[in-house]
Fold this sequence. Notes:
Layout: E1 5-8, E2 12-19, E3 32-40, H1 42-52, E4 57-60, E5 62-64, H2 67-78, E6 87-89, E7 96-102, E8 105-111, H3 120-130, E9 134-138, H4 144-158, E10 163-167, H5 179-182, E11 188-189, H6 193-204, H7 211-219, E12 224-228, E13 234-238, E14 241-246, H8 259-272, H9 278-292, H10 305-313
Parallel strand pairs: 1-4, 1-9, 2-7, 5-6, 9-10, 10-11, 11-12
Antiparallel strand pairs: 2-3, 7-8, 12-13, 13-14
Amino acid sequence: MTGSVLVVGDANVDLILQGDIVPRFGQAEQLLDSARLVLGGSAGIMAAGMAKLAVPTTLLAVIGDDEFGRFTRAELASAGVMTDELITDAEAPTGISVILSAPDDRSILTLPGTIPLLTADAVRAAVESVRPDYVHFASYFLQPVLAGDLPGLLPWLRGRGIRTSLDTNWDPAERWEGLAKALPQLDYLLPNLEELRAIARAVGGAPGADDEAAARRITALGPTVVVKAGSAGGWSLGRDLPFTRAVGLAVNVVDTTGAGDSFDAGYLAAIAHGIDTEAIRLRWAATAGSLSTLAHGGTAGQPTLNELLAAVDR
């Protein structure tokens, strides 16, 4: 039986701009190759990826009572995400990110809107309603109220037998505060390489001679660290888990938006489907992340379970 997942965090719209994307001021008009309005937010994209991988997935997030909020709800539902726990706020606008997308990098401008309004009480209420096997938190630094309550919320979840994971995403303030109190109560931390290094510095000074040493500094606090390594795939390390690596697919990248969230979805979907071999979990994650880059936006290229399994077999 496949486990159920509650994804907690940000749901918003992404406006993805491609082409001549480096802004030039002085009222210079620039012509783009494309502009697309798509589902965004780390939690929203990750939840869509989980649902497409045949995992019963509910998203808890706050959206506005506006056109962007209605668009977000509809896109989530079309991906198979259960939206009963979405909270609509009548006062704040739905968040939006403007993504200036290049083949190998991107710049993101975000209006938080409703994103910071999620609370620990809302998480507890959703857990009592959904009764998930697993709770994943996304975009820690965009939700300061919820982040501040995580050290108390995570033990509450653990006491109910619920496993937890966190993808912090980048800290816009680059202070990386508060994580040392939350990490001991987490089962999994899912950073990319840059986030791994920043978190390791924040929780214990210099991260060490290499990225594996940085991960060991974090695993000493408790969680298994599962690292997104871009085109190199990903790797993991835990207190009782040896260093394990899996490569991604060689693909012609169209758009990297949301690839890390799709990696997260692949890894946690493997857990939900009962995969207990770490190398296979990582292979699912790296494959899901690779396939997601084959289309524009964070969700259009996300694979179904059958598509992922076929790619893994190849």
